[in-house]
Design brief:
single chain; mainly beta; seven-stranded antiparallel beta sheet; five-stranded antiparallel beta sheet; 4% helix
């Protein structure tokens, strides 16, 4: 669910979207980056401190739409080792699970045709990205056609954008239900910072949408 972009909006609407304590609710509890409002693009109009009003919440979205994880790293070893950085809860590369999820649930797709998924893997190795998300209802890997024209934005928990990429083509399939694409093959979004790699031990937020920046 996303809050309306215009018109009437109330504290009850905000509470329904973001959640809140059961009593003694105040606007100051809904600062961006706090306990209830995640620091992502759709919530950029919500301040992190100071004056706050109902109009700041237009278009805001709850934590349930975004996966949150702490990155880890692992290497395949051998004569030509590959080092993976990110999160993997299903041992995609037989290196053991990597990193850990705070929340694996992530909404994918365009407005009106969104699906709920559970993120299983988001790894960077060199200039390649390995990705897997399973449909929350069926448990099967999400069809790669869903990724077409999807924007993947990964940022730190303090909303410092790591990278912002759009897959213009359906990514390639690989083993263990994952898909991959060369990072260099994805047009950069407006917040792209190619020089900033993911760092093991750092907390990240991943969001995804189709057709427009999120």
């Amino acid at each position: 669910m996303t809050l309306p972009s215009s018109g009437s909006i109330s504290l009850n609407d905000v509470r329904a979207e973001f959640g809140s304590p059961s009593s003694n609710v105040s606007m100051s509890q809904f600062y961006r980056g706090g306990s209830f409002v995640i620091a992502v693009t759709k919530n950029n109009n919500i301040p992190t401190s100071g004056q706050i009003s109902m109009s700041n919440f237009y278009g805001g979205r709850s934590k349930g739409a975004y996966a949150q994880f702490t990155a880890g790293t692992a290497s395949t070893g051998g004569k030509a080792p590959q080092t993976y950085v990110g999160v993997d809860s299903v041992n995609i590369h037989s290196t053991g699970n990597i990193g850990s999820f705070t929340s694996a649930g992530m909404v994918m797709g365009a407005s009106g045709s969104e699906i709920s998924t559970n993120l299983k893997c988001w790894l960077i190795v060199g200039t390649r990205c390995d990705f897997r998300a399973d449909n929350a209802s069926s448990g099967s890997s999400v069809n790669p056609a869903t990724y077409y024209n999807q924007i993947f934005q990964v940022n730190t928990s303090t909303s410092s954008y790591l990278f912002d990429r759009q897959w213009g083509n359906t990514p390639s399939a690989a083993a263990n239900g994952r898909y991959f694409s060369a990072l260099t093959g994805m047009p950069a979004g407006p917040s792209h910072n190619a020089s900033t790699p993911m760092v093991s031990g750092t907390s990240y937020v991943m969001q995804m949408d189709k057709g427009s920046h999120i």
